[in-house]
Amino acid sequence: MEREERQLPVGIQSFEKMIKNHNLYVDKTAYIYRLVHTGKPYFLSRHRRFGKSLLLST
Asked: Nearest CA to 15 among 5, 29, 33?
């Protein structure tokens, strides 16, 4: 069985564009749900081009 090689979405800030381009996407919705429902505030610090806007657009 041959694996399909998919590109990482470096610099892509639109979930829609990423899906249309068949880029690699790891769904972490369950982790985000747990973060939101723990009752503690979290500061998500990420460097430039590391998916903050993409996270919000999903």
From this structure: 29
* CA dihedral angle for residue 14, residue 56, residue 11, residue 46, rounded to 10 degrees: 180
Tell me, what DSSP letter sits at residue 21?
T
The answer to the question of residue 1 being in a domain is no
Q: What is the pLDDT of residues 1-53, one digit of tens each?
A: 667 788 888 878 788 888 898 888 888 888 888 888 887 887 777 666 666 66
Q: Is 31 inside any structural domain? A: yes
Task: Count how many domains the chain has.
Answer: 1
Residue 6: inside a domain: no
Residue at 47: amino acid letter: H
Question: Cα(14)–Cα(33) distance, rounded to whole angstroms?
Answer: 21
pTM for the predicted model, two decimal places = 0.45
